[in-house]
Protein: WD40 repeat protein
Organism: Actinoallomurus bryophytorum
Amino acid sequence: MRSEAVWESVAPGVELATLEGHAGRAVDLCTTVVEGRTLLASAGADGTLRIWDPVTARQVRVLHGHAGAVDAVVEVDGVLVSSGRDGTVRTWDPVTGERLRTLTGHKGVIPVEVGGKTLVASASPDSVRLWDPRTGQTRQVIAGATGRAIACRGDLVMATSGTAGGGKGVGVWDLTTGEPRGSAEPDGHTTVDLCAITVGGRPLFATAGYDKEMEGGRIRLWDPATGELVRVIEHEPIVEATLDRITHVRAVELGGRERLVSVGQKTVRIWDQDTGASVQVFIPSESWVERACFFRAGGRELLAVPEKYVDSLCVWDTATGEPVNRIQRGRGPFDALCAVDLDGRTLLAGADGHLRTVRLWDPLGPGTRPRPQGHTGDVYGAWAFQGKVVSVADESLRIWDAETGARLRRIRGSMFGIQDVHAFTADGRELLAGAFSSYDDGRIRIWDPATGRQLRRLERRWEEGPTIVCAFDRDGRTLLVAAGDSLLRIWDPVTGGLEHEEECDAALEWLGRITVDGRPALVADARGRGVRLWYPADAVWQDLAGPGADFAFMLGDRPLVAAGESETLRVWDPLTAREQCVLRGEEGTRFAGIGVLTLEGRPLLVTHGGEDRTVRVWDPADGRGEHVIPVHHEVVGCAPLGNGLLAIAVPSGLVVHRVSS
């Protein structure tokens, strides 16, 4: 079996490369040099480390060993150091992939400069171990410290403390003996980060934190030798009506001198630590600061900040404070961001946790995508309609010719909260109904797809709105039933009259539409009490004992339900409890939706995995996987069409494939 893309309305991204391979979130990232080549190493929730060549965009090696998710990876003098949720810290040879050492009962990998040498700090429940990843030798065990933050200056260590202030404060220890030299809990201040910094020629420590009364926080500069509090810098909110609590503090070389940098929820700030004055403030225009990366490119010292909850990566000139670029990075949060130097060119690499990828950008290159052929906002899903494709995004509903990709109709208007689209015939016309689930504003809209006009809004107060809509016939009339939160309602779509309303269990999760002996029914999961069917023509329930389900659909004239667990999906007939098949995917396979594609008269099951970026085709007779379509985007919906066509909705548009044997 094979497939090929027939047409798409997806604009190309501005990233230079997308590195795919992790079966779980990509959560951390660093660079490493192997035989003269600069490579990337990524840590994943799938329990692996992966090494990539950013020049060829190929995976070089996969490192196995952790028994659970890997949380962090750093490179220290040619050795990779990883921390996992299995309670181990491991070292690796990036050249051979060989696992070198394992430190059990510890977590975290914080690089710490000690006497011109980089050590690693890893935490156990009651101490922090400073050790050399090259030899495995322990330099010192700091009893009472936590692994949140640690820094060294000369023969002193400052770290967040598990004893001072119930874990809110900091402590100072002698690096040689490991003995405590003092502790502080700054007036209820919860310390979130610290670093070593030079102030007026004096080696000091900077701590950052806040308490529940603060809207921003404070930076405190300490003399570790005397315990003297040298200066307090107020990190006050400067964005109106929003918190800007400080989250990180660090020392960065900028303009030929060391500068103190703070990262807050809404700003990144550069300070003159000698005076406490603010030098530059960087404020993302649309959202919150996700993280900050300082780097050099094009002869300038730059700052890159991914904006949380939106798809932008902002780049500024740190000397002038002027914006340099704004890159549309696509959906998904960044769990890590680093600069990569390749043959005199600096790129940005991001670990995209949501989409399980590592992506590369030119920070000085094009920032915006070409205008897409279709929707300008995120697409919510795709539905089949009379051999055509319906797609919905924030600003419109569009109808496409399935074979050619020609846009047949655009229905304008806000589509926020749409949950379901259903085609039906009433009064001799083909119509579309949309169910909108929006808090305190749920509704049903009816459109004429031939003209693009909205014919009616069926409105009645819902707490959260309907999630599913279905047409059925009663006494020669076509009616619509909508289900949501704790209500079932039946409407006449022609007159807009409400004909029936009844309460139902608010815990029901509506799964889909089926037909039982010619009678339309809505299917709901009863949350541990099997599956429930509601027949709108008679307004009666049918309770079916057995396990709960996630999906309901028709295979020919047979109603089926399915439930997913890990990498498997069990499919069965809810009326007879007879198992149809079990779909078994490899590690990382997800099941976010299921449908039926008919190919040369043969029905096939089609599933999409959402964030696993694939669509899969299965034989319903035995559950055998027949084909995998790599989509290279998060899949938000899938609509099987005629002639082997399959419409796949991704956030930036539609991709239509033709599947053939």
In short: The two ends are 4 Å apart (CA to CA). The domain at 377-416+549-661 is CATH 2.130.10.10 (Methylamine Dehydrogenase; Chain H).
